[in-house]
Structure to design on (604 residues):
């Protein structure tokens, strides 16, 4: 059997890294999987579970072994990790293809270019799988996590086309649908659809929890509230990091939202029935169309 | 068999009214059910389904027949309907006990007092079942809709205690848990837990739909966004009416939320990691406690 890659190094062996290793093993994309991170316990657990074949605590060794390095650490650490890898590769030709899975791309692109004399490292292909789970850690990893999920790649000028093709093939081999976007578009779309909703849900729950009537509020909240605030149970450290990493696009999203909320507030204050009805109707129509897209997407699954 | 009530008149035969009639028939609370509203087709359909025994298009006749009148019309129409009923009863002693199911209580209390020479009609007991469905209309009605759901009653000074007891018994007979609150507390709690989340979801979806990147936005939105925006698919006319009916409490809720959002915006703008982490952590803790309450509640179900 021939493999597109001999050795994949997973940097940060949690839900995403572990699931990718499992899935790539199943798909026959790579022969060997090596884990690297600072928590030796996760790496040993990954060995026990058969997710990785070996691990190292030495970044130079990880780089030596790798055909592909996938940075799966939390968002803010991902930039540092890439800087460390790139500084070791500076001036060398060849070496591994490098990719990541972080939720924000602009800050990582910036860090990578700084570490590479202001240019794009040709072998670095930034990516973001739109997949996850409420569970975390290598114990929660599963080989099907990416099946029928989108993976956004953000190739830039200066990228080696062969490196981009390899990372695309890697994600396609685990059943994902790969889509290209610019870094700016990626960060704006994610701010709007994910980062802003998290900020709104956290803000609402925190505001209610601090109100005098918080006992009654949570006692009488119903199903709509449960769905609306579910994402406020997400990991605070992860979302702190994402909010900071994507702060420019997130601020834009917050400001646009606040403008719209201000307009709706005025419509409520003046009992402007027509404006309220028009706004709610437009939103319902858009949300119903979104439901159809989702239904269509799940129909395409085997 | 003896019934606590001989005849219940349902004014507005939709999901809530139809479900209540079915449930009260099953519980043996009333012998007879009569429908009243302006859509004769709904009434005929209710007869076909066996939800009601008879109907009338004449309000005087409905009043004559009723031991209990339950106003189940949409929120804004409920005030008018109560005014019509109360103006016919003014100066009379006895007559039916009257209740409603509207989502907002302050505007209805106000309308009722205006129709009753500035005092509280003793036989009017305002209520709000915290139950619903994405479906609507009498065809969607089901006898279990209120089982293990909360019903908030807002009795006020001037209410006849026997009338309050009868309405409490009515809801308890269909499996609901009845809780008393003041009108002001009810409207504030509902604004915070239901009306504000709807406004936020409508605002977000409308803002995104109007953005230049709306195609990409809806294409890449994931599960968190789906849950967060589900309530933006709710009926625009119903929510226009609720927003207007509860505008004072809703404006308070919007303003409190906006203040908190403004603070969080500043934390993002200044990359204040500590403030972001603290806010997100407090919210997560409150949301996790809410999850436990919900889990506890569903465990109590048979």
């Amino acid at each position: 059997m021939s493999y597109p890659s001999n050795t994949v190094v997973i940097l940060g062996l949690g839900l995403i890294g572990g699931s990718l290793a499992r899935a790539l093993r199943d798909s026959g994309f790579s022969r060997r999987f090596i884990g690297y991170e600072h928590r030796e316990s996760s790496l040993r657990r990954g060995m026990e579970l058969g997710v990785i074949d070996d691990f190292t605590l030495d970044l130079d060794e990880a780089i030596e072994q790798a055909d592909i390095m996938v940075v799966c650490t939390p968002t803010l650490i991902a930039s540092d990790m890439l800087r460390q890898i790139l500084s070791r590769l500076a001036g060398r030709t060849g070496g591994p293809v490098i990719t990541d899975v972080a939720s924000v791309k602009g800050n990582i692109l910036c860090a990578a270019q700084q570490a590479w004399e202001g240019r794009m490292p040709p072998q670095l292909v930034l990516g973001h799988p739109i997949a996850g789970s409420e569970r975390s850690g290598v114990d929660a990893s599963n080989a099907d996590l990416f099946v029928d999920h989108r993976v956004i790649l953000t190739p830039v000028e200066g990228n080696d086309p062969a490196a981009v093709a390899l990372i695309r093939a890697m994600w396609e081999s685990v059943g994902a649908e790969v889509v290209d976007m610019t870094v700016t578009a990626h960060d704006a779309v994610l701010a709007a659809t994910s980062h802003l909703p998290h900020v709104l849900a956290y803000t609402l729950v925190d505001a209610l929890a601090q109100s005098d009537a918080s006992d009654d509020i949570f006692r009488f909240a119903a199903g709509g509230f449960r769905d609306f605030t579910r994402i406020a149970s997400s990991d605070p450290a992860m979302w702190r990091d994402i909010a900071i990493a994507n702060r420019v696009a997130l601020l834009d999203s917050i400001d646009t939202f606040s403008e719209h909320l201000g307009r709706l507030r005025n419509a409520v204050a003046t009992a402007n029935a027509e404006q309220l009805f028009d706004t709610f109707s437009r939103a319902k129509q858009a949300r119903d169309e979104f439901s159809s897209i989702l239904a269509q997407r799940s129909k395409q699954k085997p």
